[in-house]
Fold this protein.
Amino acid sequence: MGGLTVLGSIREWAVWALVGDDTPVGAVLLVLLLTVSWQVWREIRARRAARKRLSYHVSFNSRLGFDPPDAGEITRLLDRNGEPVPDPSMVVIRISNTGTNDIAETDYQLPLKFDFGGRTVRTVDVSEGVPPALEEVFAPHLVATEHGVVVPDRHLNAGSRFKLLILLSGNSADNTVRAGGVLKGGDVVDARHEQKNRIRYWRAGTAVVASLCVGALAAVGFGLPGGPAGETTCVDGTLRAVGSSAFATAAAQAIGSYEAFCADSTIDSSFTGSRQGVEELQKSDGNVVAFSDGPEPGLDPGLVVGRPLAVIQFSVVVHPDVLGRHTGALDLSAADLRRIFDGTARRWPEVRPGLADLPIRIVGRRSQSGSRVAFERYVLGRNQGALTSTDCAQPDRPGGREPTLCEVSTTEDVLDRVSGLPGAIGYASTPDALKARNRLVPVTIDGRAADPDDPGNGYPFWTVEYVYHRRDPAGQPSLAESFVTYLTEESQAQALARAGYPACRGLGLLCPNRT
């Protein structure tokens, strides 16, 4: 039974216990204990969710030796300046925003920095940014001191992460990595050690409270139906998350949060498209979870488990120059969009007088995209059209009657291409589109806008985000199952809603009724 149901039962029973004619003293004490315990638990979870969390994880810290040992005289490691690196070692540090709030530049009271003792920093690079553009944000501003690295104070969205690759020279007494930094209203935490200890203490406290409750129940002879939902059981190992690029930001946030919660679990990710992710899941041996914009038909329910996770809304976006003399928000009807995508309207004034006299250039998604499936199903009512342009700017065969339509792989590619191409139009997940408002214009459809606070308001361009994983043939808990369970907990439902993806668990029949 869910936690909210139990809370309702406690409240009803509390009224009876406190006003009944034969109220036992133990029952009153039990009510008070349960109520206080519940409120303390909720307050702990709320406070943890509200604080900013910048976590780091030293995933590699070792000498770069050679075999046989004297090979170092033959094979010499050089740095990027061509200088030899004596006694080389490498450190890899993953830095993640594992909280539910963005970290702004003004939040750093002291910058995040790492010290490597007696070892000397030779080179430092940024890799595996999520999103990839983070590498360009942080790399040019890294400060390498003689024995350390200072990370620049840059905005880091919730769920975003990247890795530092540091090449070092020399030896230190213990070769440890020391970190420092202070966040306003937040914490800088070691994802493997400090967070693990906090979780252990929190679980111990929870166990004590639970024991007291059970003892009190036994003492007074009362029982309550059901109990609060169980915590996620951590499963050690490595998992791969794939699928929807439209949901990549929210998925990355959840991955960072789960890795902080389960310190011995690692989740790698690659978000290139819903169908491509589901195909990879089907070919895997079970260590994959796939996110899909909409349900994926044809999967064997005996082998694959699919769960509706959240509502994902999409927005049509245009280059700012399209507005021309038009003032106010740009509203297009579904009929307007069909005329654009079938080539009936070739220039923007043909769609709406006052728009800039620019050719219409369509940036669509490839067939693997769940965003494209949702656009075709709920807005166009037809296929988006054939590929006619490789560069998005000009048709490959000038003079034809088809629209100028190119296809790109990811949501980020759509936003980048539309924002850099006058006259362009495309579609992307609404949270990502809103973050790019400074470089493109979201469009309302038939007078309605996407609204994460009211996903059932009649706005047509949305679908349900599903998460899939393989069933464990032995019936044992798997890392994939643990992660999916974590995604559907109340704390993550709240995090998804704050990120602009209303969780299905709070929307009644809205998700199952989406056809």
